[in-house]
Amino acid sequence: QVHLVQSGAEVKRPGSSVRVSCKASGGIFSSYAFSWVRQAPGQGLEWMGGFIPISGAPNYPPKFQGRVTMTTDESTTTAYMELSSLRSEDTAVYYCVTYDSTGYYLGYFDHWGQGTLVTVSS
Amino acid sequence: DIQMTQSPSTLSASVGDRVTITCRASQSISSWLAWYQQKPGKAPKVLIHKASSLESGVPSRFSGSGSGTEFTLTITSLQPDDFATYYCQHYNDYSGTFGQGTKVEI
Questions:
Q1: Interface test with A, best of B98, B100, B102 (most A CBs within 10 A)
Q2: Cβ proximity of B25 and B88 under 8 Å
Q3: Is the Cα dihedral B29, B34, B40, B42 positive or negative?
Q4: How many CB pairs under 8 A join A and B?
Q5: CB nearest to A107's CB, from B45, B87, B91
Q6: Which backbone phi and psi does A101 adopt, to 5 degrees?
Q7: How confident is the prediction along chain A (122 residues), in pLDDT tens digits per residue?
């Protein structure tokens, strides 16, 4: 059973960047892939991008291309999401999620981190 | 990109009711659909994947059906613990679009 623990809440200024980490334990790190999902206050879930097993590379939706970078470090079993050029609309809870990496494409999200609140405010 | 549309946005129900939530895809997604439940202040939890496969540990009062572009999540005999927001999601693609959510309230 995979357990995901995310880094703590952040307060950032507009225009700055934030990096959120997600430490995984349990299971075999190479057997699952990571995505990131965010949820603005009172709003729904929004997929920000994630690793596509068949390519081994992250895919980002157009909305986030150029602003988000997702990486993983197998040596520390940790995933990272960095979002740059922050604006107030980026205030949200950010979740890391995992899914089976043995398929070709994005899997369904069977494990979730606890969420990290990022507040963007001047 | 494939768009996912849920209805209704809000649903008022009582304990013991049968509840049905609909999710429509903008194009065929075969059976590549998951349903999630989210309670306030908590991370979502997967209930169903591949349109109708119940995740381990999920009560059997939850069921999913559909394929192509139209899907449903049914809760038979709604329990107090089921009052939450439900999301559908398309997967097995290069993206993972969610529906906008359906809040089930008393």
A1: B98
A2: no
A3: negative
A4: 65
A5: B91
A6: -95, 5
A7: 899 999 999 999 999 999 999 999 998 888 889 999 999 999 999 999 999 888 889 999 999 999 999 999 999 999 999 999 999 999 999 999 999 888 888 899 999 999 999 999 99
